[in-house]
């Protein structure tokens, strides 16, 4: 490991791997570090179709296609009564190859991205822990301290630090930039099953969103390869874990209250432990500074319901990488240059945030909304695809808000 790099990327997930690939391919001396040994477990297995264009940019489309991941061609919703919606088939809206995406084992998927950054010229180290990010008296990032797998500490100078540390959000926590969404204080409790009943035909690999009877929680159903399915419960942390409730007991209690899911697991076998994550919905008040930028979950995370996390991470990594490459060409690594992509990103991602808040409103039903406003089916599908940077969804949410207000008065 050298003592100087043009760019240091902290975190080997989708955001870090894509950012490192972009800057390394441009010829910048790039270091990518990951705390854990690669490959390593991570949640967030369902991809939006718009990830296709990131794979094209990174030169990974064929590798992803041949990796053996479960194909995902649709999304489906199931009500608190167990009534199934018509699947939202992506190809009905766009019949190009990008309409098929994947449900991925993140250990294998992230390793593909990590290795690709190495192929493009980055020095890639796993089992390397970030100790600190260094700033000068003008609050400009100047380097990092790390500890490698052999236990040795290293001080590395650089021109730019890309923080892709995920929910650790190292710089955001260090500079007190992290803001938890008070309306989305959720907990996720999940595990894995073998032999769960999936959809049929092209709906076999669908992500299914299933409400519980009370609509106080919901389950994800994400079919992976090798007959394994990721099953997770999400609800208000204070509600589900009140009075010291144990996550495993909560999971099975909520499962018993989910009429759309219990038949799918009747002959399935649970694999492994129950896992949890709490209060994962947050934003950051500043996304970049002189010599540093946040990407992926270090930038912020909305909610798992529409599977936007990996897509956003890839999108941010590529956009930040492009801004850094342009900044080196102009000799401008200021906050303004490094965050030049963030306004457009936030403008597009707001539509997913709005859709998430609508989902958690008991006055909202996606099925009822589509019956009332069939003209919005294409735009709703756009949101589920991740096509959020090309056009406004303002009218969709005006009609959605009006319908929810009407339902609240009934």
UniProtKB/TrEMBL annotation:
The record, for Pfam families, names: FAD_binding_3
Q: Recall the GO molecular function terms of this protein's record.
A: FAD binding; oxidoreductase activity
Instruction: Indicate yes or no for the key word Transcription.
Output: no
What's the Enzyme Commission number for this chain? Answer: 1.-.-.-
Q: Does the keyword Cell membrane apply?
A: no
Q: Entry's SUPFAM superfamilies?
A: FAD/NAD(P)-binding domain
What InterPro entries does the database record attribute to this sequence?
FAD-bd, FAD/NAD-bd_sf, Flavin-dep_Halogenase_NPB
Q: Which Gene3D superfamilies match?
A: FAD/NAD(P)-binding domain
Specify the superkingdom: Bacteria
Q: Which UniProt keywords apply?
A: Oxidoreductase
The FAD-binding domain covers 5-178
Name recorded for this polypeptide: Putative oxidoreductase
Species whose genome carries this gene: Novipirellula aureliae
């Amino acid at each position: 490991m050298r003592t100087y790099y043009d760019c240091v990327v902290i975190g080997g997930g989708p955001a870090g791997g894509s950012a490192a690939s972009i800057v390394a391919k441009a010829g910048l001396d790039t270091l990518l570090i990951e705390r854990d040994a690669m490959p390593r477990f991570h949640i967030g297995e369902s991809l939006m179709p718009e990830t296709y264009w990131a794979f094209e940019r990174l030169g990974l489309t064929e590798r992803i296609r041949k990796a053996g991941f479960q194909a995902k061609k649709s999304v489906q919703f199931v009500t608190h009564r167990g009534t199934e919606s018509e699947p939202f088939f992506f190809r009905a809206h766009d019949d190009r190859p990008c309409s098929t995406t994947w449900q991925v084992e993140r250990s294998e998927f992230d390793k593909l991205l990590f290795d690709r950054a190495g192929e493009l010229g980055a020095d890639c180290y796993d089992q390397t822990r970030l100790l600190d990010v260094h700033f000068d008296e003008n609050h400009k990032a100047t380097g990092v301290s790390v500890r490698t797998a052999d236990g040795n500490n290293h001080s590395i100078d650089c021109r730019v630090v890309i923080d892709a540390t995920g929910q650790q959000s190292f710089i955001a926590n260090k500079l007190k930039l992290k803001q938890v969404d008070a309306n989305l204080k959720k907990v996720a409790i999940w595990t894995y099953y073998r032999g769960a009943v999936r959809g049929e035909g092209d709906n076999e690999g669908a992500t299914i969103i299933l409400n519980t009877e009370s609509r106080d929680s919901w389950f994800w159903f994400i079919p992976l390869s090798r007959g394994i399915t990721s099953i997770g419960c999400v609800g208000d942390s204070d509600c589900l874990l009140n009075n010291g409730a144990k996550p495993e007991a909560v999971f099975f209690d909520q499962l018993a209250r989910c009429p759309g899911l219990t038949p799918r697991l009747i002959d399935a076998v649970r694999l492994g432990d129950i896992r949890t994550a709490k209060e994962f919905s947050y934003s950051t008040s500043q996304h970049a500074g002189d010599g540093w930028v946040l990407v992926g979950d270090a930038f912020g995370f909305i909610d798992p319901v529409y599977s936007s996390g990996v897509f956003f991470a890839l999108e941010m990594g590529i956009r930040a990488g492009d801004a850094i490459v342009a900044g080196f060409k102009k000799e401008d690594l200021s906050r303004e240059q490094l965050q030049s992509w963030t306004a457009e990103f936030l403008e597009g991602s707001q539509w997913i945030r709005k859709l998430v808040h609508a989902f958690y409103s008991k006055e909202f039903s996606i099925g009822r909304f589509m019956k009332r406003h069939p003209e919005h089916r294409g735009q709703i599908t756009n949101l589920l695809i991740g096509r959020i940077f090309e056009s406004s969804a303002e009218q969709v949410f005006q009609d959605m808000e009006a319908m929810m207000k009407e339902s609240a008065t009934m």
